[in-house]
């Protein structure tokens, strides 16, 4: 908290005035005598601090730096596009229809499968044909 507040160029009192947070409570939080709650976290987020960084120390400190940062577990849009295309092609080839819930589960499985670069779209389509 102190690092984020200092980065923002604010004293404890100024941060509390700006965020509407109680000064004494904030001081206890920053000293580690109190455990910070969601209200304090939200105040930092409104000031531009990345909540993930604030809670874990991981990733960029500033929200504005998130756009260029790689987020663990982030969706690979191209892999998702290929996964969906393979499923649709496999279903079309077999002239089958899947219930939305089953199709969603298959999409997640195919997405995970395509993480392995040796797996081709054709292989996935064959799996989909078998699943349909």
Structure report:
With 132 residues, this protein is mainly alpha-helical. The protein contains eight helices and no strands. The longest helix has 18 residues, at 77-94. It is rod-shaped and about 65 Å long. The N and C termini lie far apart (52 Å).
Q: What key phrases describe this protein's structure?
A:
single chain, 132 residues, mainly alpha, 0% strand
Beta percentage is: under 5%
> Which outline best applies?
rod-shaped
Distance between the termini: 52 Å
Query: Unreliable stretches, pLDDT < 50, 5 or more residues?
Result: none
Helix content: 55-70%
Indicate the mean pLDDT: 83
Would you list the SSEs in sequence order as H and E? HHHHHHHH
Summarize this structure briefly.
The protein has 132 residues and is mainly alpha-helical.
Task: Give the SSE map.
Blueprint: H1 2-7, H2 12-19, H3 23-31, H4 38-46, H5 51-56, H6 77-94, H7 100-113, H8 121-131
């Amino acid at each position: 908290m102190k690092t984020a507040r200092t980065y923002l160029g604010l004293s404890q009192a100024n941060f509390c005035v700006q965020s509407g947070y109680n000064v004494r409570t904030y001081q206890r939080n920053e000293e580690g005598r109190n455990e910070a709650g969601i209200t304090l976290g939200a105040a930092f987020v409104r000031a531009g601090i990345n909540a993930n960084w604030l809670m874990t120390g991981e990733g960029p400190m500033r929200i504005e730096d998130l756009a260029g940062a790689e987020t663990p577990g982030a969706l690979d849009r191209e892999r998702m596009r290929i996964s969906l295309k393979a499923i649709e092609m496999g279903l079309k080839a077999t002239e089958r229809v899947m219930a939305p819930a089953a199709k969603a589960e298959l999409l997640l499985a195919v997405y995970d499968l395509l993480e392995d670069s040796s797996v081709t779209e054709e292989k996935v389509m064959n799996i989909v044909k078998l699943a349909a």
